[in-house]
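Repro:
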Amino acid sequence: MKMLLLICFFPLQIVAQDLTGIWTGSIQTTGNHLSYEVVVSENKEKLTGYALTVFVFNGVENVGIKSIQLKIKEGSITIEDGELVYHNYTAPAKRSKLSGKLTLGTSDSTMVLSGSFTTRSLDFRDQTSYTGTIYLQKQNNFTSTRLTSKLDELNLLNSLSFVQPVKQRQDMALVTTSAQSTQKEKLTAPKPEVKPKIIEPTVAKEQTMEPVPLPAPKDLQKQISLSPKQFPATNIRSITTSRRKNIVTIMPALVIAGEIIPQPTAKEKQKQIAFVHKQKPATDIRAVAVTRPKNIVNIKTVEKPVVPAMPVAAVAIAERKTEVIREVFFQSDSLVLSLYDNGTIDGDTVSVVLNGKVIIARKGLTANAIRTVIPVSPDLGDSLQLIMYAENLGSIPPNTGLLIVQDGENRNEIRFAGDLQKSSAVILRRRK
């Protein structure tokens, strides 16, 4: 009876497991051990995705990516590949189809897909077939792999269901529904009755001014000699500023160049004195402007913001220890650099310095590639130093990332780490 229940419920257990995500492992045939990666996506209860296979032919690494379909049937999982979406084969590709029968299990709390496969040729003149085994482990977090990097370059990564979690889409739907409900309530709510305001007339109080003493003849002579140089004679009010009391004294009418300059009214004096009392002490005054139509003095304080200077990676890099983690030999006249976050995306930010010059400045690492092209001219020499400088440690120290150096058809994957005391470096050497 126990065996019967196990057989009946085992397919339900597979359905309950989430097969979507990234799987990495290998394919083994007679005398061959090939790297094999799979991504599985779910759309309308159908499991699809892509598979990457890597093999070496005449010393050159060949990469091929095919679309795949998966089905759950009778307690097992079948996998079958389809169209070839990318390859860099150095020899003409043979048209063939892989079919596998896999079982789901666990190894050290990690989900595992394993089983056997066969291939059949689609060319009727070549009926060569192969058999072997498949072993895949599921990556718990979104890990940047060779397959996900290439799918990103082909604009196919965002089509996978696990790249944008279902929960996030549900949360967005709930937020949208709540916002729509709130807006509907606002539109249907009765408008409050607006009562007209009764404005009571106010009587302006008469303001009195104290008499302003006349300046000494010596001071008056100085004001008369300076004023014509600063403003037109017909609009001048002689102004003196007392630093101790911050009071502007407005002088009586003056005769300049044969014209009579009228004395301001009591109302104008009151406005000017009240305005000046609100300003900062005379020692903080930066600029004084006169508004000609109303003869009002406007005093403005100009404050220059102090922006703390951040250290440039090319300068601050000398304060840390530099550790060479890899040497890469290249042949091309230009190299393509791609940067990703290695593992959990936790806000790591880096700068990349090439021979003392910043080529990538303060970029946050994500699952999407940060790319730049390095022209390798002869004046740079045959040996270049590439340093990854950690601008921060993210939420999970240390600062880690994945650097991919593309040299024509050759691809080099380099995982680096850094902190506030150490930087990782890669030496690029021209192959002679």
